[in-house]
Write a structure and sequence with these properties.
This is Methyltransferase. Belongs to the methyltransferase superfamily. LaeA methyltransferase family. It holds the Pfam family Methyltransf_23. Residues 10-23 have a biased composition (Basic and acidic residues). InterPro entries: SAM-dependent_MTases_sf. The protein is α/β, with parallel strands linked by helices. The chain has a single domain, classed as Rossmann fold (3-Layer(aba) Sandwich). The protein has ten helices and ten strands. Strands 3, 4, 5, 6, 7, 8, 9 and 10 form an eight-stranded mixed sheet that branches.
Length: 320
């Protein structure tokens, strides 16, 4: 992984060029045939209450987000102490980039990636990975139990995370692990001055719009705070919860946090164009979207926007 942070505006001419050498996109930019157009973007028609697009632009962002998240984990794909699982499942696999890397890291593991959108590559992928269209909140129809079940950044996707965690427990082999990575729609200012900068900003408005949009369609964006509790109640043991504060851009002084923040900034810049459905679900007027998205892009690159957002990494084992 690269050690130099990708430059961001206020220190950047071309964010695309600064990241191209490190990012390894899946190359899957063919629209899912079950897609519909809204706000000039393509969205899944398989389940129409998913708030983010599934088009080529979003697929590119998901690949970038994968790299950004690996920087949070210091290059790792997961934190659970798994060794050589026989069967693994990646829920909400997106472009499949995590599952593909996992398959290469564990060539003796059979891994299935599931998603409501079929946007994963079908060529030049390891033979031990396959992708299936599935709504994971419906009944799972697998002919096996799994040694490892993973999902990442699904907070806007599920209506009942507690039930999903119980389902993961049920579909694990004894001794198997489940691991969940999530962010919450909260912002934590670095100090009082940063709190004043944040107040009333488009960034703050967007982070309030997320939970409002989620509530409108039955999603709880605070659910990650309860993952550990729900895992313990489901029967998991050795449950570990890691909470981290992630900078929104490259404002931190430390090199490591600056690198993490730079990647997150690029992720948010790419995300800005796909916020229309979420913002409108929260009651935002459609005619105001272009101006709001421009202010959002300014805010996430502003050096004075010294804020963090919380992430949760939670994993646990099914007892023997």
């Amino acid at each position: 992984m690269a050690t130099d942070p990708p430059k961001i505006p206020h220190a950047l001419e071309d964010p695309e060029d600064s990241t191209r050498s490190e990012r390894q996109p899946t190359g899957s930019t063919i629209p899912d045939p079950l897609s519909t157009e809204e706000h000039g973007r393509l969205f899944s028609a398989y389940r129409d209450n998913y708030l983010l697009p599934n088009d080529g632009e979003e697929q590119d962002r998901l690949d970038l987000q994968h790299t950004a998240w690996k920087h949070i984990l210091k290059g790792r794909l997961y934190m659970a102490p798994i060794v050589d699982p026989v069967n693994a499942l990646d829920i909400g696999t997106g472009t499949g980039i995590w599952a593909i890397e996992f398959a290469r890291k564990h060539p003796n593991t059979n891994i299935i990636g599931t998603d409501i959108s079929l946007i994963q590559p079908s060529e030049n992928i390891p033979p031990n990975v396959k992708f299936e269209r599935e709504d994971s909140e419906q009944e799972w129809i697998f002919d096996r139990l799994f040694d490892f079940i993973h999902w990442r950044l699904m907070v806007s996707c599920f209506t009942d995370f507690e039930a999903m965690i119980r389902k993961c427990f049920h579909h694990l082999k004894p001794g198997g692990w489940s691991e969940f990575h999530e962010g919450t729609f909260e912002l934590v200012p670095a100090d009082d001055a940063a709190a004043e900068v944040l107040k009333g900003s488009a960034l703050e408005q967007a982070f309030k719009a997320g939970p409002a949009a989620g509530a409108a369609i039955g999603r709880d964006f605070d659910a990650p705070k309860k993952f550990k509790k729900w895992m313990l109640e489901a029967g998991f043991v050795d449950v570990v919860e890691e909470q981290r504060l992630i900078p929104i851009n490259s404002w931190p002084v430390s090199r490591e946090d600056k690198l993490i923040g730079s990647w997150q900034c690029l992720n948010f810049l790419k995300l800005s164009g796909g916020l229309g459905k979420m913002l409108q679900a929260s009651g935002f007027p459609s005619e105001d979207l272009p101006e709001f998205q421009e202010r959002f892009r300014h805010d996430v690159t502003w050096a004075q926007m010294r804020v963090y957002f919380p992430v949760f990494i939670v994993y646990g084992r099914k007892p023997f």
